[in-house]
Write a structure and sequence with these properties.
heterodimer, A: 556 residues, Thrombin, subunit H, Pdz3 Domain, seven-stranded antiparallel sheet, 31 strands, disordered N terminus, B: 707 residues, alpha+beta
Chain lengths: 556, 707
């Protein structure tokens, strides 16, 4: 099935000498990620393609503005332009130099030099921990690429042109950096429980047009860390997870507070028996969790003990619910108010392998990196989460917005608008930029009629269009659901200001606390968005909501 | 559903078969019926189907394929996964056709063209309940026609007591000649309401369906939506809400919402919908009409015109007891309020108030759709399902039942309520029963010849959930054992206090995995298999390993061979080769030109079916899928509390009550082939086979001695 949860396979202890991952190792990784949070911002960008709703991450690889991007299949085979976004949502003009679908890559070039970007250094393959930049599948305005830490399954043999990554969380064509911030590889298609990534130097040989770009190949310096094991070919086939990931997870797991201030909440209604995690906030049985995952009948399991649970109150804006159980002396969460720094490492207990009912007795571990605080009400780069939609996709040209795609079966597609039409004004208001269009659309509601003045070769004409809800339009053609996926939360927006991080969560992992290594909670996971993007509420916001929920219950 | 208008009980030549004849027929037919049954794999789920022509025409259900001309995958009984295209769909009858796009011949079954079936006739249903499971052939289920509908749809289906469930949708219903007479379509909560599309209804539109025509609108109840990362799971609710919002524009909260951007939470939308346009059929919850402080049971507000307001509850009241039970916290009071019913509350000021709740619409639940099976449509039970009494058919076995009286006892609580059954294994009073059913029962007794004997638990086998118990009765007779494992399709009986229940073995015996550990067929893996791998880091296609016994191995491809050409065209890297293999169906011959030690050689391997992946890993999706099957199953009657996680079990389709687990499963000669251990799911009961019982009893006796 395509949408089963990520297949985590229990690994066999293949190696005689266990890898030692300690405080020291974790500190050196975090030191690098904190530094990279800044430097990667000038080297990686969010990229999309006209007509597609999906967004990915691209890398600047030369001083002349060459961009290495994942190949995105364009709609209807037309040569639609790639779109590069700055943090403010503005688009940077690009030309396509070459596309290599088999390697899942495209080589692009900025039309004008932009001094805000620096070219990534390119290095040979490493046998160390790597960092992979990621973004939301539909990025928000102001969103910057986050980072995901991954480990090699084994040291690549001499002369090797590829490495094998442990996770399955990345789409092909994603850049891979070493811990010093050098670009070393890009990912290929996921295999069973791993992803191969081909070295950049190999790509430079294959991808002849790369020869001209003179990449920065200066030496990089890496911290002292456990190296991926050297294994024989037979062992390689048996290997299902990286021994480094296992060692690191087991180290991080030991940093959980004990007893764990978490509850496993099961829905017991007839629809389904799916479950979610809760964070215990008071010793007398008060638990916070994700409201939209809850049905009418709850069973709550804490440290192997089962209790009937009841929803005492819910808060719509934050999607938090206060669930009560008749218990006392429960372990409670300790919040930390130190704001996380971009690049800092986050840890959460999750519902995973080998355990079901007794999951929280031996919680699995998941890690991610704090990326940024996403402001509430920031529109997405594409129109999909605007409040209303015209049913068109536009492209910014010098003289204004040009219609690049029309949604199938929408009022716009039947209105007489055609691809290539230039929008001059809407309801008499001149529109030349996307931000103006977004502001205008946000001031309307679904069902309103607006009048567009458009210009094409046959002259200007006025066309009336009924606004539709963007959420009701099927995704633009050309989207391929990622072959590897998590089960996302039903409710993924809107939220107040939230912590965006790169921990892969499934819908049922929400409601869990995010810990730092001292076992203090830095946030509460509230939405699973994609394989490398999740959202969490900040402690201060959680406490404010909790106060409100404690003051008055729902009506019984 | 309309009540059944005519219901005639014909006992004709087919239904008048003796049990021995029936046993022989089902056993003989089973392998062929299973071979023709396929799983229809969709992106977000799977249904079933039956091959009806040598070249791969498949009949299935319309709510499985949903739309004409879509490409999907069909999983054959032999493990092949082949591409297929849906042909026409008829949502009015729920019949549909699809075509396998691969060269045949395929194992197929003939189908009936006219309504040549009748009430009382024996039938066999197959399909893939819960989605195809690795290593499990389609389970065979036996039943009788209870209503011989012709037109199809919800109004006139063939109704049987052959137990089908989600995932079986689209699977066939056969008569005892092995002809397809119906297609599994929907079920009622009741276990005897299994509805099938009558074949004549599909024959009626046969040519149109072959041409890919569609009839009617797809039902909302069927398939889970195609689950894309970008789809909104509750888009339907949002659409409904937006429409209701416009209709209720004069309402205050609607006016406020219309004036602002709105991306509401699903529960918020549901609440508003409930308020504006209450659905009388929605699930209800009790409503008293007041709010509390969470930290102490103090009333914060009383809603106007609510039961609480009219009973005189007021703001600030501190509640100290409910129905004479002391209330310590808001949580304990809230749990009482949730249970509903009249409640007498006492406040700290000594006020006593009795509240009778009114109703509100219960909280809805919006989980992600469960991937992995097409949901079986469930119709409302409106009338009692017609039931054909088994008495007459099983009357030849009355003497066997009588002989079993001193061998199978009923275990009861002190108050006489039956708890479980027990099978006598030694005349000194040793019996076997289901351990978990008797675990916490006080004053447990065994009834024999109008006397009650106290039960002593000697030892328990946790793995199989079997307890060895002892009573001090005389005149008990140990059962006769049959060590041979029963065959698929074999007719078996379980003695009950009243007589017998009958059913067949549905699938070969195997372990009964714990919830969440049943390994479903992974449709995502490419199905064609050559058996070679390349170094991860290589770009040139040099073979790194060759699997032993694989097609590559059979023709003599070796490690180190460099592949130059496939089917006379050059390769563009390893991924190109992977592409070429995965797009060809198993059975295709490929021509490889390879280079070995400066010599160019040609090989012609024939692609095989990829062997299933193996795992023993908890899968939350499988667990949720199991949860969905369980809740549908539980609507028809009681399931055993412990119903999975047995190391080895016989699977059968008898509708046994949890109260008769512990009773023996016997063949038509009266010999015991196993001990019933669980009513597991709608379509599944489990028994521990005799050969395992032997080992278990040995160990239990040793344990008992040690104690």
């Amino acid at each position: 099935m395509k949408f089963l949860c990520i297949p985590f396979i229990l690994s066999l202890p293949l190696f005689a000498t266990p890898i030692n991952w300690t405080e020291k190792e974790e500190n050196s990784v975090e030191k690098q990620t904190l530094a990279l949070a800044d430097t990667l911002q000038t080297q990686t960008l969010i990229i999309g393609r006209t007509g597609l709703t999906t967004t990915r991450v691209a890398t600047v690889i030369s001083k002349d503005g060459h961009i290495l991007a994942p190949f995105l299949a364009s709609i209807d085979g037309r040569k639609a332009p790639y779109l590069l976004y700055k943090a403010d949502g503005s688009r940077i003009p690009l030309s396509t130099i070459a596309e290599r679908p088999k390697r899942h890559l495209a080589l692009l070039k900025l039309k004008e030099n932009d001094s805000t970007f620096t070219a990534s250094r390119i290095s040979e393959l490493t046998n160390h921990t790597v960092v992979i930049p990621t973004c939301s599948p539909i990025a928000s305005l102001g969103e910057i690429p986050g980072m995901f830490i991954d480990h090699l399954e084994f040291t690549p043999p001499e002369e090797a042109t590829a490495i094998r990554l442990d996770s399955v969380n990345h789409l092909p064509g994603t850049p891979v950096f070493d811990l010093s911030g050098s670009l070393i590889a890009t990912t290929l298609k996921a295999r069973n429980s791993n992803i191969p990534a081909i070295s950049i130097s190999q790509l430079l040989r294959e991808f002849t047009s790369l020869d001209e770009i003179l990449p920065d190949l200066s030496e990089s310096s890496l911290p002292q860390l456990p190296k991926a094991p050297e294994v024989s070919e037979e062992e390689r086939e048996e290997l299902t997870s990286s021994p480094i990931t296992d060692a690191r997870n087991s180290f991080l797991q030991d940093t959980y507070p004990s007893p764990l201030p978490c509850a496993h909440i099961f829905n017991e209604d007839t629809q389904s028996t799916h479950s979610v995690i809760g964070t215990i906030v008071r010793q007398d049985g008060m638990i916070l969790t994700k409201a939209s995952e809850l049905g009418p009948d709850l069973r709550v399991s804490i440290a192997g003990e089962d209790y009937p649970g009841i929803i005492l109150a819910t808060d719509e804006a934050s999607d938090l619910a206060l669930v009560g159980v008749e218990a006392t002396g429960l372990p409670t969460v300790t919040w930390s108010d130190a704001p996380p720094t971009p690049g800092s490492i986050l840890i959460s207990p999750i519902l995973l392998q080998g355990t079901s009912e007794e999951m929280l007795a031996e919680p699995a571990c998941n890690t991610g990196i704090f990326t940024q605080i996403l402001k509430a009400k920031t529109p997405t780069v594409h129109s999909t989460s605007q409040v209303t939609s015209l049913g068109i996709t536009t492209e910014q040209r010098e003289n204004g917005l040009v219609i690049a795609a029309l949604k199938k079966d929408s009022p716009a597609s039947e209105s007489g608008l055609s691809l290539g039409d230039l929008i001059e004004s809407i309801d008499g208001q001149e529109i030349t930029r996307r931000s103006e269009l977004t502001t205008l659309l946000d001031s309307h509601r679904v069902g309103d009629k607006v009048t567009l003045l458009v210009k094409n070769s046959s002259g200007s004409q006025e066309i009336e269009i009924t606004l539709i809800s963007p959420l009701l339009i099927p995704p633009a053609t050309g989207i391929q659901a990622p072959a590897i996926a998590i089960v996302p939360s039903v409710r993924r927006s809107p939220f107040p200001d939230v912590i965006a991080h790169t921990m892969p969560l499934n819908a049922w992992d929400c409601g869990s606390p995010i810990f730092d290594r001292q076992g203090r909670a830095l946030g509460l996971n509230i939405a699973a968005v994609s394989a490398t993007r999740s959202l969490a509420l900040r402690p201060a916001d959680v406490r404010k909501v909790l106060e409100k929920l404690l003051a008055e219950t729902r009506a019984f | 559903m309309k009540p059944v208008l005519f219901f005639l009980l014909f006992l004709t030549s087919l239904s008048a078969q003796t049990p021995q004849e029936l046993d022989k027929t089902v056993r003989r037919l089973a392998p062929d019926l299973v071979a023709s049954t396929v799983a229809v794999m969709l992106q977000a789920g799977s249904g079933s189907g039956v091959i009806v022509s040598e070249d791969g025409l498949v009949i299935t259900a319309a709510h499985v394929t949903s739309i004409a001309n879509r490409s999907l995958t069909v999983l054959l009984a032999d493990g092949r996964e082949l591409p297929a295209t849906s042909l026409g769909v008829d949502h009015e009858t729920d019949g549909a056709l699809l075509q396998i796009n691969a060269p045949g011949p395929f194992p197929y079954r003939p189908y009936l063209e006219g309504p040549d079936y009748q009430v009382g006739e024996w039938v066999i249903a197959t399909g893939h309940p819960g989605g195809p499971v690795v290593g499990r052939p389609s389970p065979v289920r036996l039943g009788r026609i209870l209503k011989a509908g012709i037109a199809g749809g919800f109004a006139d289906p063939i109704t049987t007591d052959a137990l089908v469930i989600s995932g079986d949708s689209g699977g066939p219903l056969f008569n005892l000649r092995g002809e397809v007479i119906g297609i599994n379509s929907n079920v009622g909560g009741s276990w005897s309401l299994n509805n099938h599309v009558p074949l004549p209804a599909i024959i009626d539109r046969w040519d149109a369906l072959l041409n890919g025509e569609s009839f009617g609108r797809p039902t909302q109840m069927g398939q889970a939506p195609e689950n894309s990362l970008f789809d909104e799971p509750y888009a339907e609710l949002r659409e409904q809400f937006e429409e209701a919002l416009k209709r209720n524009a004069e309402q205050e909260d609607a006016r406020e919402l219309l004036a602002r951007p709105r991306l509401l939470d699903p529960h918020h939308m549901q609440d508003l919908l409930n308020r504006w346009e209450p659905n009388p059929d929605a699930e209800k919850a009790p409503f008293y009409g007041f709010t509390l402080a969470a930290s102490s049971p103090r009333v914060i507000s009383v809603l106007p015109d609510s039961p609480a307001a009219s009973a005189g509850l007021s703001k600030g009241d501190l509640i100290t007891s409910a129905n004479n039970e002391a209330i310590q916290s808001t949580i304990s009071l809230a749990l009482k309020l949730k249970d509903g019913g009249p409640l007498t509350l006492t406040t700290s000021t000594g006020k006593s108030i009795t509240l009778t709740p009114s109703e509100t619409i219960a909280r809805a639940h919006f989980p992600q759709p469960v991937a992995g099976m097409v949901n079986m449509m469930v119709i409302d039970d409106d009338n009692d399902a017609p039931i054909i009494p088994a008495d007459e058919f099983l009357s030849p076995f009355q003497s066997i039942r009588d002989e079993l009286i001193p061998s199978v006892l009923l275990l009861r609580k002190a108050d006489g309520t039956p708890v479980a059954s027990a099978t006598v294994i030694h005349e000194t009073g040793q019996l076997l029963t289901k351990a978990s059913e008797i675990a916490k029962v006080e004053g447990l007794v065994a009834s024999f010849e109008e006397d009650d004997y106290p039960v002593e638990i000697m030892a328990v086998d946790e793995d199989y959930d079997i307890a060895l118990i002892k009573i001090s009765a005389t005149g008990l007779r140990p059962v006769k054992w049959e060590v041979k494992e029963p065959k698929v399709g074999q007719l078996l009986l379980t003695p009950t206090p009243k007589g017998f229940v009958s059913g067949v073995i549905t699938q070969p015996a195997r372990s009964a995995p714990k919830k969440g550990y049943e390994l479903n067929q992974n449709s995502n893996e490419p199905s064609s298999y050559l058996g070679i791998t390349f170094a991860v880091e290589s770009v040139t296609p040099v073979i790194e390993t060759v699997d032993i016994g694989s097609p590559a191995d059979k023709v003599g491809l070796l490690e180190g061979d460099k592949i130059l050409k496939v089917d006379n065209s050059k390769l563009d890297g390893i991924e190109d080769l992977g592409q070429r293999i995965s797009t060809k169906p198993p059975g295709t011959k490929l021509t490889f030109l390879i280079k070995r030690n400066d010599e160019e050689l040609t090989f012609e391997p024939i692609l095989d079916v990829r062997p299933p992946a193996v795992a023993g890993v908890f899968d939350q999706t499988a667990s949720r899928r199991n949860g969905a099957l369980t809740s549908l199953s539980a609507r028809g009657g009681k399931l055993s509390k412990r119903r999975d996680d047995f190391p080895y079990a016989i699977y059968h389709d008898q509708v046994i009550s949890p109260r008769i687990t512990g009773a023996p499963l016997i063949n038509l000669e009266g010999e015991v082939v196993g001990i019933n251990i669980a009513r597991a799911l709608r379509h599944r009961s489990l028994a521990v086979p005799t050969k395992k019982i032997d080992q278990i009893v040995d160990q239990l006796r040793k344990k008992a001695k040690a104690n």
